[in-house]
Amino acid sequence: MRIAFFTETFLPKIDGIVNTLCYLLQHLAARGHASLLFAPEGGPAKYAQTPVIGLGAIPFPLYPELKLAPPHIDFSRRLAAFQPDLIHVLNPCSLGLTGLYQARALQVPVVASYHTDIPGFAVRWGLGLFREPLWAYLRWLHNQADLNLCPSRATQLELEAQGIQRTRIWSRGIDTSRFNPAQHSQTWRLRLSGGQPDAPLLLYVGRLSPEKRVDWLRPVLAALPQVRLAIVGDGPARPELERLFAETPTVFTGYLQGDELARAYAAADMFVFPAANETLGNVVLEAMASGLPVVTARAGGVLDHVVAGETGLLFEPESQESLIAAVSRLLADEKYARQLGSSGRARVQPQSWAAVLDGLLADYAALIESRRSAYQSIKMAA
């Protein structure tokens, strides 16, 4: 197969969308398929075996980390020369719209994948008046696709409730050989606990941006002075968060990747994830694979994996008191916390990237064959 991708975000930005796309491009190369990627400029010229076409882009006003390439850019010759069998647009907004138009012009099927709850973020940012216009635009855009992929059942239900059609779940894989309790390192325990390895250590991993609600961990530390907190990640909210946590036993590490990230997970006692608008939460899967009990909101895509009382604890999405109570419960019962961590790892262990991505390739192949069969029928009728 020959697959062309249009993404609103790519390296050097690091987030769940980029990580998923990188795994996908590696998998396509391993399976012998050809691919071409159009993305905002600033990233590598090639990733795995995929050429990357960088395009000038500007920040999206409601979400500056999202860069929008103007939809009028003409790269039809480059795309036509590649001769794609299918076009996949990721988190379509501006560049993704161009991908949809190009798919129609080339008469190839188009897949759109939904990754980020921008309408929900707008409400969190106090811009609730934009929620319905954003859904209207996304509904119009996604309903032009032959297939709409979403990362979780909760997200699929939300899209369907908003009138988005032809949805299917495309979950995420997890590398359980890398994210593993065996990665535990006393050196990392010392580093992340600020030199207090015997104290309970809470961990957050993810983007440091307002919608992630990392600031909700400050009252947790105030209520539970015996614990230490490690915050792994970076983003626009980091300076403000560093000021907020300045007088607390908190360690900021910035971005971590690969084995360093795996060791950070394995060094902690508990993963605490305050966000309530996640379409999946890749970091939750990584924490579960690392054997950590998870505390997260009773909302969004995390509910596909975090089962209350079995693989983690859920707090009420708008209640800081509920979050504190959940953390306190696990601190008070170490045996129960270990049990949840073990059950969480067992739940995600079968979910390999190879299996998940082979399922996606099967969806691609089915769409391509369906389109070819339809054209063949039209020719025979003529």
In terms of topology, how is this protein built?
Elements: E1 2-7, H1 16-30, E2 34-40, E3 46-47, E4 50-55, E5 58-60, E6 63-68, H2 76-82, E7 86-90, H3 95-106, E8 110-113, H4 118-124, H5 131-142, E9 147-150, H6 153-161, E10 167-169, H7 186-192, E11 201-205, H8 217-223, E12 228-232, H9 238-244, E13 250-254, H10 258-267, E14 270-273, H11 282-289, E15 294-297, E16 312-315, H12 320-332, H13 334-348, H14 353-381
Parallel strand pairs: 1-2, 1-7, 2-4, 7-8, 8-9, 9-10, 11-12, 11-14, 12-13, 14-15, 15-16
Antiparallel strand pairs: 3-4, 5-6
Helix pairs in contact: 4-5, 11-13
Keywords for this entry:
globular; 2 domains; Rossmann fold; alpha/beta; 8-stranded mixed beta sheet; 6-stranded parallel beta sheet; 382 residues
Describe the structure.
- With 382 residues, the protein is an alpha/beta fold.
- The protein folds into two domains: 2-173 and 352-381, Glycogen Phosphorylase B (Rossmann fold, 3-Layer(aba) Sandwich); 181-348, Glycogen Phosphorylase B (Rossmann fold), CATH 3.40.50.
- It is 41% helix and 19% strand.
- It has 14 helices and 16 strands.
- The protein has helices at residues 16-30, 76-82, 95-106, 118-124, 131-142, 153-161, 186-192, 217-223, 238-244, 258-267, 282-289, 320-332, 334-348, 353-381; strands spanning 2-7, 34-40, 46-47, 50-55, 58-60, 63-68, 86-90, 110-113, 147-150, 167-169, 201-205, 228-232, 250-254, 270-273, 294-297, 312-315.
- An eight-stranded mixed sheet has the order 3-4-2-1-7-8-9-10. The protein has a six-stranded parallel sheet with strand order 13-12-11-14-15-16, sandwiched between helices. The protein has a two-stranded antiparallel sheet with strand order 5-6.
- Helix 6 links the parallel strand 9 and strand 10.
- Helix 4 (118-124) runs antiparallel to helix 5 (131-142) and helix 11 (282-289) crosses helix 13 (334-348).
- The protein is globular and about 70 Å long.
- The model has no long low-confidence stretch (mean pLDDT 92).
